[in-house]
Amino acid sequence: MVKICCIGAGYVGGPTMAVIALHCPSIEVVVVDISVTRISAWNSDQLPIYEPGLNEVVKQCKGRNLFFSTDIEKHVSEADIIFVSVNTPTKTRGLGAGKAADLTYWESAARMIADVSKSNKIVVEKSTVPVKTAEAIERILTHNSKGIKYQILSNPEFLAEGTAIQDLFKPDRVLIGGRETPDGLKAIQALKDVYAHWVPEDRIITTNLWSAELSKLAANAFLAQRISSVNAMSALCEATGADVSQVSHAVGKDSRIGPKFLNASVGFGGSCFQKDILNLVYICECNGLAEVANYWKQVIKVNDYQKNRFVNRVVSSMFNTVSGKKIGIMGFAFKKDTGDTRETPAIDVCKGLLGDKARLSIYDPQVTADQIQRDLTMNKFDWDHPIHLQPMSPTGVKQVSIAWDAYEASKDAHALCILTEWDEFKTLDYRRIFDNMQKPAFVFDGRNVVNVEMLRDIGFIVYSIGKPLDPWLKNMPAVA
Ligand SMILES: NC(=O)c1ccc[n+]([C@@H]2O[C@H](COP(=O)([O-])OP(=O)(O)OC[C@H]3O[C@@H](n4cnc5c(N)ncnc54)[C@H](O)[C@@H]3O)[C@@H](O)[C@H]2O)c1
Question: Where does this protein hold NAD(+) (predicted)?
């Protein structure tokens, strides 16, 4: 029986391995992690992450050929194929701080593999890593090899949170990079054989190691760049009376451009886009490519601009002050159908409003009060370290309360800010909400989910990103 061990039981390791186990009953899959709480949660009925469809998949194979364990060394030493899916945060100090990837967790995983292995291994990079990481990993492993042979493969993960199970069941492509030597090609084939249990052969792409590593960074940079492009356009739409949804629709009809990923919003978030672009920028700089680095830097700058612009809109619309005013925050996760808050634009928007002394009442159907308080008190990039290594938030932010539902969050509020596109925000009883709010009652829709006309008919003053401005807002330009 082929044995797979995955180091890192997070948003990528957990779902990816569950889907492999489901489709490959003849393979034993063990997911290991240094976090005892995370592994206990995987072994309970309350999984540590929320992802539609994940529960059902895990239920079918947990205890059959899918296991979660903290006994890392045992399972690594027994495995034929080792996936490494650990955090690769942005460095916060030293060389490349604020840009380069921190490979501390990766390196310690590699050293541990070298220490405990007694048989040949295929080591698969599942984490997103800088191009050429495989070379460093190879050096660590072969330097301590005791005659054991290692083959390093790059198999970056392209799943999107919120649709992870769907993406893993029917991936657009599976990418496998490896050495172009007889042993390298054999390792590529072994990993191909795993995916071939359910992925059609023409969707499995093989490349050299460096192309695979760089393709992941490139794909995330292209995706984020599309969002920053449409968000930049949204500012121009507001200035000119154009409607960004109509512009996106018209632009997306061009088959060379395509309709996906063209929704204007308060900004992109998530654990990957910013981190991976910063990493790309750093690699470009290290290779003397200043113009290329600056080009990609702009994608992040526009994203920061969009979040600031939103905060300025809120404050300037409400007579230039939100001091002491209650603002209901609808949604905190970085997108719908996930409880993940890493780099969510809600953090920057909330911090901006708190900076102007607002009182916030935050509601999100999947994010806990503790997580929200941690996010609002944590230093930049601290979130991307294993949970047990993150600083605890000793005291919560006083001006922040957490609400059980949208109605509680909006009660007596002066304004609502919609920051996540949860479906339930489309069908709220906005008449009831309006009746319970202070007047004038404002809605700032950062995700373009509400029916603007309907809300204006009720009496709300509505701001919707990139849409023709409410007459109220016309003389209150929000310049970031
Ligand atoms: N989240 C996504 O949507 C996504 C998508 C594609 C790729 N990625 C990439 O995948 C990687 C993992 O991302 P994630 O979202 O799953 O992160 P995560 O923080 O959810 O999970 C990583 C896990 O690794 C564990 N870990 C760290 N060092 C370890 C060690 N030495 N031994 C054992 N366990 C260790 C941590 O405790 C944590 O549980 C990152 O490189 C990320 O960029 C993420």
Answer: 8-13, 33, 38, 86-90, 127-128, 161, 272-275, 342
